[in-house]
Amino acid sequence: MSVDWLAPICAYCERSDPGFWAEPVNALSNAAFLAAAGLAGWQARRSEPRDGPALALGALVAVVGVGSFLFHTLAVRWSLLADVIPIALFIYGYFGLAMRRYFGLGPLAATGATLGFAAFSFGLEPALDAALGRATDALTNGSIGYVPAVLALLGVAAGLLRPQGCALGPARRQAGWGLLGVAALFALSLGFRTLDRAVCPVWPIGTHAAWHVLNAVVLFALIRIAIRYRARLP
Question: Which of 28, 31, 27, 32 is nearest to 216 (CA)?
Answer without folding.
Answer: 32
